[in-house]
Design brief:
By secondary structure, this protein is α+β, with helices and mostly antiparallel strands. β6 and β7 form a beta hairpin. Bound molecules: flavin-adenine dinucleotide. The site of flavin-adenine dinucleotide has 18 residues, from β1 and α11.
Length: about 425
Amino acid sequence: MDPHYPPEAERFRKEVKAFLDDHLPAGWQGIGALDPDAARRFTADWRNTLYQEGLLAPSWPKEYGGAGLSPLEQVVAAEEFYRAGVPTGGPNDDFSIQMVGNTILHWGTEEQKRYFLPRALSGEHVWCQGYSEPNAGSDLANLATRAELDGDEWVINGQKIWTSMAHVANWIFVLARTDPEATKHKGITFFLVPMDQPGVEVRPIKMMTGWSEFNETFFTDARTPKDHVVGAVNAGWSVAMTLLGYERGEAAATFPIMFRTELDRLLDLARSTGAAGDPLIRQRLAWCYSKVEIMRFLGMRTLTKFLAGGEPGPAESSFKLYWSEYHKVVTELAVDILGAAAMAPSGRVATAFRADDVGAPNDSASWATTFLMSRAGTIYAGSSQVQRNIVAEMVLGLPKEPAVASQKGSWRQAQAG
Ligand SMILES: Cc1cc2nc3c(=O)[nH]c(=O)nc-3n(C[C@H](O)[C@H](O)[C@H](O)COP(=O)(O)OP(=O)(O)OC[C@H]3O[C@@H](n4cnc5c(N)ncnc54)[C@H](O)[C@@H]3O)c2cc1C
């Protein structure tokens, strides 16, 4: 089976390829072929090019700085960008555009759209995500950060954790409790909070790769204007879930291409080291190949739903579960193929968060960092166990697991219990 896109999509694909030919430097091999400093510089310049062309948020209406592309055109553009090995934005744009931008587009007032969306695109506002807390990760509704109205401003106190890229952000979207007497999922509000103020402190957390991509973020009487609430006060849970849907859903188009490119690179490595002659390694490589092919079809299924106007929902959990679990296995295989070289990695470390960038050299340091980072894939945006629960309960309709804290009592009672 080889599914095809409709002819208009293929026509648009030619336009995207022409745009890339016109704007990329001669001899371009993918951002992975640049050294990390050159890659950072290229990403900043390229983001600016996309901004000028209205292509940073291709599906947003033109009045908010998008290109007004149809969902199908957006998918085609994302595919071609990935194949060419060029980023679709800067390091925080997953938060600024995909998450909070799309959420404001969905739930925001007209004033919020006109104020926040163009600033997310111009880079004046750089966003990060303030959801998780020390006692609220998978059980996000257990969050304890609170906000109280003081005249025309909300005053926020509490702590967030694992706030990726908070050290380079100047705005954070925060879930905070605004009604401590309400039941757990109620009484939560979704806030837009400026970080450049004395009440917000960011402290780095060191990861096992040696990087410090995420942080702890502390709020001590931090302030945000009264109207910087998305959706209704005390109704932030639905807003938060829309955002998680965007976080989980939009990978369907590009991830199968990304993992196929990565697998091709691993095949090259297996050939060059001679590991491809080992029947057990060959069997594991064949397993990975079949997984990536199945991922392609799963992605197509998700895309078919989106293109028919469907919203991201619980079914997207199966895709997230699938790619993240696969990625742990394929990177373990890479480490086995490298053998001792993986213990003393050399060369260029991976520059991308998931599979290394297109054009990356087949260095042991690239695979070793990707191997470590792949562990995170089954945790962020909902752990594998939680995704399985979602699929079981909300897609397959199996009985709910027993709740630990009482859902009937107020959040305060649940905390006391
Ligand atoms: C790389 C990375 C980046 C991140 N970036 C951000 C960010 O920018 N902003 C942000 O807010 N958060 C971020 N997070 C946090 C992430 O959302 C949480 O780590 C995740 O939700 C899990 O929560 P937790 O770490 O508290 O683990 P816990 O919820 O404490 O889970 C611990 C273990 O228990 C299991 N478990 C929990 N509940 C159940 C259940 N009901 N049934 C079965 N098993 C269960 C989990 O699967 C896990 O194995 C990031 C995490 C990572 C790894």
